[in-house]
Amino acid sequence: MAAHSPYTLNNVFLNEKITNISALSINETGYYLVFWWHSIPLGDLYICREEEIDNEEFKNMVIKAVTPSINYYAEKAAFTSSYKEAYLSDNFPLFSKILDKIFAAFIAEQLPGEVEISVVICTRNRSKRLQLCLESLQKQICTPKEIIVVDNAPTDNNTRLVVENFPNATYLLEARPGLDIARNAGAKKASYPIVAYTDDDVFLHPMWTYRVWESFISEDTDAITGLVIASSLDTESQQIFEKHWSFNKGYVDKVFDQDFLKSKSPKVWDIGAGANMAFRKEVLNKINYFDERLDVGAAGCSGDSEIWYRILLAGFKIKYNPRAVVYHEHRREISALHKQIFNYMRGHAASVLIQHSQNKKAGYRRYLFYEIPKYYLLLFRIGFPSYSFRYRTLISEVKGLVSGVRFFYRNRKNPLS
Known about the structure:
The chain is of the alpha/beta class. It has helices at 55-77, 84-88, 92-102, 127-138, 158-163, 179-189, 208-215, 236-244, 258-261, 281-286, 303-313, 334-358, 364-382, 394-411; strands spanning 7-13, 30-37, 40-47, 114-123, 143-152, 169-174, 194-199, 202-204, 223-230, 254-256, 276-280, 318-328. It has three domains: 7-106, no CATH class; 114-333, Spore Coat Polysaccharide Biosynthesis Protein SpsA, Chain A, CATH 3.90.550; 335-411. It has 14 helices and twelve strands. The strands form two sheets. Strands 4, 5, 6, 7, 8, 9, 10, 11 and 12 form a nine-stranded mixed beta sheet that branches. The model has no long low-confidence stretch (mean pLDDT 90).
């Protein structure tokens, strides 16, 4: 991804046609293309406005982008016919016939009108963003039984006024600042067995609620995360975040269980993003909810990855479902990105030390005090302080890590919540 040039998000539905490069007007802007088969995301592709690509090259780029996910679904369907040749030869009828068979088990023909899910949105002083998020919830093909908006230590009344415009949403005031405090308040208020979280700076794919609910049909699913796609990549700040801190964890299913914890300092932060996650309420209760020392108002962030670690440590299972899709609006300004990354790394340092205290054999102390410093020393050695894409947030990252370590040792004797 080239820096600074804006990218236009374009959803390309391969079930409708075989797209040619000439239809994209690359000379005017770069493109961030997300490929779909009906409501199933398959992959993405960046094209810079400076690139000169003909139709044959473009088709090969598309096939390369979607092959991992299509092969995954084809294996699930035990279907071996080649779709690549059909696509590359512009044989859309054959390509469509093959993919219809591959995805038959994943395209729901009849959907329930309502599902027993409590959707929790935690917000603070971002009423305009919240409005868009709630509007996307109204457009869900399957309506959630309950929507709870947790207004976290607000300084104005705008959130309440927004929620009053949505009769199916419940307003809940949580006066204590802290995202994980708000998350816990929402979970305890929830009336239904599945508690799904999203953020006020996202809007939801119309199938999101259904895909979340569908994930829990399997009794061995205790929690899930889903796919987070950037809603815009107009600014340098947004592009830095998507390239180096992306919430997008890919387009194939993943399972995280006890085997995942056997890896060296297991990277639980790779499980997903807090903007798109859901839990069985009984599991949240059993593990004592989110650690309120973390996230905004306390350590900074990483309350989501810390709870995923405790869920796995308790013997439960987490699944990543890329068909549950939300779109996230990244910070547009560099100043806001610096603050966000500082908080991320502050929370990251605190959370891995908390995880070390829960399981000293996991290797998190070595990860924090040896592997991370080694990584940053290497970055400094090979390029800093040159003005390049990667180094724009480096100082904020290091300051956040140091701050997180200090926070943990000041608060380690405090109770979990």
